[in-house]
Structure formats: C-alpha cells, structure tokens
C-alpha cells in the first residue's frame, strides 16, 4: 500500500518565536503601490488647480495688505494732529507764520514730527524720502508737484510708509505711499491722498466714521462732494477710475476704501 503525503500550500514566512502569538504568511505580505502614470496624472491635476487659484489668492492677499497698511498710516497721521490739537489747541490757533517754506518747517517740527516716529525727513522734499515718477491711476504723471503751490516736504515713517506734503491757505495735502519708495508708485495702488483742513466743519453728507480734520480727499476738503459711492468711482476728474487719461485720476480711491468700511471691493479698479 502506497503512502500518501499531504503538502500545505500556505508556507510560514518565518518561525514563530517563543512568546509570539501571530504568524505572518506569504499571502498576507502583499504590497500596494501607484504606477508612474498615476503619480504623473495626480501631479498634473494639482498643478492645474494651483495655477487657477494662486493668482486670485495673491490678489486677495495684496488687497488686504493694502488696506492694513493704509489704515495704519491714516491712523498715525490723524493721531499726530489730534495730539497736537490737544497740546496746542485747534489748528486755527497754531503758529504758522512766514512764507510757505517757513510754515512747513514750523508745522513739521512743532506739530507733526513729535507725534510720529520718523526715520528720515526731507525739507524741502527729495527723492530720498519720496519716489520719483509717481503715476496716476490711469498711468500718467499727476499734477501734485507744482512749485507755484508752495514749499514741499516729505518723510519716511518708522512704520514703512512715506509722505509727501505741503500747506496752503486753507489746509494741507498728505500724499501717502504705503510701501515707501517701492513700486508701483501709483495713485490708488500704493499712493493715497489725504487732506488736512484748517477749519472745523461738519456735514451730514460725510459717511459714518469720517473725520472732519483729517480725511481722505475729498472727505477732508469738502464732505458735500460725497453724495453716494458712485461719485467716488466715476464722479469727477479725481474719481477712482482706472481707464482715465486725467493726471488726477485715483485721488478718490482712499475715500472709496474708507467709504466701503475699509475694504477693497470687487469693482475697485485694481
């Protein structure tokens, strides 16, 4: 009679050591992996999605940074004037005698600089404190630098922004570049216009939160100019309008951002 031997089809991968309770078999040691084609397809999909979303994310980040820096510069300038008014009385009583050059020097040393941290001041203004070739929102050189309007000054704030400013009979102008001497040096992008009025006025036409003494042009100059949001976008030669060949285009952009609750909305001419 022939002996029949039985051979198991499942072999143990290793000998069970003393104290162990599990055995790994060859059948359970199966490996799973992606093919090269699958990896390349996945990477391609990720790249397409990134290419579609990154520009939008970058723009949104730039807008938020612009608002943050603008709000900080505005707050510092406003507080500087308010502190001086507290110490010396309202602007109407400030001692600003002499010619325009002497007035800007007195205004800077006595009422402005003591209340703002300054890295460098330029009186008269120079390209060490203010960028050359500033452009309007439409891409042309603006009209802000007219020597007949009086002496100009500029400074670099410790917070990183620069200011180009001058005085005249009823007030003064502050052109604020929120990223200093860096480009694009364009009104409505990184440069915004504030106005300082020497006469204390109030108006129901001003949006809530608008300050009478220092405001984004035209809020500081004439609150009556603001009847609705449309007037800031397309209401005059100073409107926040990109497709314009006017040298003053974009001067209302700071007022528009403030009017919108410190936000750059979708229809802003970015």
Question: What are the key terms here?
Answer:
270 residues; alpha+beta
Tell me the major beta sheet. Answer: 6 strands, antiparallel
Helicity range of the residues?
A: 25-40%
What is the count of β-strands? 6
Kindly report how far apart the N and C termini lie. Answer: 98 Å
Q: Trace the largest sheet across and list its strands.
A: 1-2-3-4-5-6
The average pLDDT score comes to: 81
Note the run of SSEs as H and E. HHEEEEEEHH
Q: Give the number of helices.
A: 4
Beta percentage is: 5-15%
Question: Any idea what the shape is?
Answer: elongated
Low-confidence stretches: 5-10
Rounded to the nearest angstrom, the radius of gyration is 33 Å
* Helix-strand category: alpha+beta
Topology:
Layout: H1 36-88, H2 100-112, E1 118-122, E2 153-157, E3 162-168, E4 171-177, E5 191-197, E6 214-216, H3 229-234, H4 253-259
Antiparallel strand pairs: 1-2, 2-3, 3-4, 4-5, 5-6
Question: What is the structure about, briefly put?
Answer:
The chain contains four helices and six strands, in the order H-H-E-E-E-E-E-E-H-H. With 270 residues, it is of the alpha+beta class.
Q: What do these coordinates show?
A:
This protein is an alpha+beta fold and 270 residues long. The protein is 29% helix and 13% strand. Strands 1-2-3-4-5-6 form a six-stranded antiparallel β-sheet. A hairpin with a 4-residue loop joins β2 and β3. The longest helix has 53 residues, at 36-88. The radius of gyration is 33 Å and the shape is elongated.
């Amino acid at each position: 009679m022939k002996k029949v031997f039985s051979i198991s089809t499942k072999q143990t991968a290793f000998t069970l050591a003393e104290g162990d309770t599990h055995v790994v078999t060859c059948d359970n040691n199966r490996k799973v992996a992606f093919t090269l084609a699958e990896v390349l397809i996945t990477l391609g999909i990720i790249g397409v999605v990134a290419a579609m979303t990154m520009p939008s994310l970058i723009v949104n980040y730039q807008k938020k940074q612009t608002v943050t820096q603008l709000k900080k510069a505005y707050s510092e300038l406003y507080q500087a004037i308010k502190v001086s008014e507290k110490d010396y009385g309202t602007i109407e009583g400030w001692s600003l005698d002499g010619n325009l050059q002497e007035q800007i020097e007195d205004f800077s040393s006595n009422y402005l600089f003591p209340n703002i941290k300054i890295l460098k001041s330029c009186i008269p203004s120079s390209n060490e404190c203010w960028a050359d070739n500033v452009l309007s929102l439409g891409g042309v050189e603006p009209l802000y630098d007219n020597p007949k309007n009086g002496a100009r000054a500029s400074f670099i704030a410790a917070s990183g922004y620069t200011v180009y400013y001058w005085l005249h009979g009823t007030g003064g102008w502050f052109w604020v570049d929120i990223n200093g001497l860096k480009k694009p040096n364009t009104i409505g992008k990184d440069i915004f216009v504030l106005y300082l009025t020497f006469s204390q006025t109030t108006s129901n036409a001003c949006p809530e939160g608008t300050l009478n003494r220092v405001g984004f042009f035209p809020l500081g100059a004439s609150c009556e100019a603001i009847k609705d949001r449309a007037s800031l976008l397309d209401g005059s030669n100073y409107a926040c309008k990109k497709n314009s060949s006017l040298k003053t285009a974009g001067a209302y952009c700071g007022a528009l951002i403030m009017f919108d609750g410190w936000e750059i909305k979708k229809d802003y001419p970015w």
